[in-house]
Amino acid sequence: MPTLVARPSYTALPVNQASMYGAQYPSYVAAPTYRSLPPTVYPYGPQVVAVGQQQQPRPMKLTYFNIEGVAEKIRLALKIGRIPFEDERVDMNQWAALKPSTPFGQLPILQIEGRPVMAQSTAILRFIGRVTGLIPLDPYAQFLVDEVLGLQEDISKTLAPSMYIMTRCHMYGYPEDLPEDERRGIQHRIRETLASEKGDLHRLLGHLDSILERSQAGWFAGPSVTVADCAVFPTLRQLRSGKLDGIPVTILDKYPRLVQFYERFLAIPQVQVHYNEAK
Ligand SMILES: N[C@@H](CCC(=O)N[C@@H](CS)C(=O)NCC(=O)O)C(=O)O
């Protein structure tokens, strides 16, 4: 059996300083530039590699609905990474026309000039993380990021039935014509259970909280902001928004470290600008 050693504890790097691992990439305070790897090195088309801060990045367009949803983590990573992009928001009519041309019939998609269209929000997030240095280079540090991304996905999964009960109740054995007030009642009860003292949400929030307890830096994975923080933040924002009937806005109150993380992330200048623009 290998000897177990304690997980590292990181001291925070200033928000505008590059990750201690990310030296290969420019700091997220400056827009990186790219070059393409030759096909002999990367056979699937031009791979974008961050090389410096002099040239213009390739034009990029992120397409999603006009909600935060699963694309918000990508928007945040792009903004923190200072990568200019078009933040395209489509409505349901536009979506009907667009859907057949997307890789998996879903949004978000990311389009970069000269590259094939990219799908799957967490894959896109990781890609942006690698380009910007919001994913560290060290494999163990990358693992810590992925562990947090996994916990965030667990929270999304616990919430999913309470979302889909309104639009796809047949998936849960209910008739398709179940009246809306009954669906709302079920939704409310599912969420009340999730948010109860022994509910799944508190179990998962407790895990996130204990990660922060070990993090001197106050970020989820290492001494500086990573895509893990970009993924957790919108989830916490959604949970305390008051928009999820059955989940109290006070849900984070017993986790002061999560609340501090929330405030710390919100204080990043690019994040402040992002939410001021959204108002
Ligand atoms: N695993 C996918 C899930 C994407 C997904 O569920 N997208 C939904 C919106 S959140 C969608 O495109 N719905 C429209 C449809 O399926 O027609 C991801 O993370 O990108």
Give a verbal description of the structure.
A hairpin with a 5-residue loop joins strand 5 and strand 6. Helix 4 packs antiparallel against helix 5 and helix 7 crosses helix 8 (256-266). The protein is globular. The chain has a 4-stranded mixed sheet. A two-stranded antiparallel ribbon has the order 1-2. It is built from 9 helices and 6 strands. The model is unreliable at 16-39 and 41-49 (pLDDT under 50). With 279 residues, the protein is of the alpha+beta class. It has helices at residues 72-80, 92-98, 121-132, 139-167, 180-195, 200-214, 227-239, 256-266, 269-278; strands spanning 33-36, 48-52, 60-65, 86-90, 109-112, 118-119. The N and C termini lie far apart (54 Å). The protein binds glutathione. The site of glutathione has 10 residues, from helix 3. Glutathione binds next to helix 3.
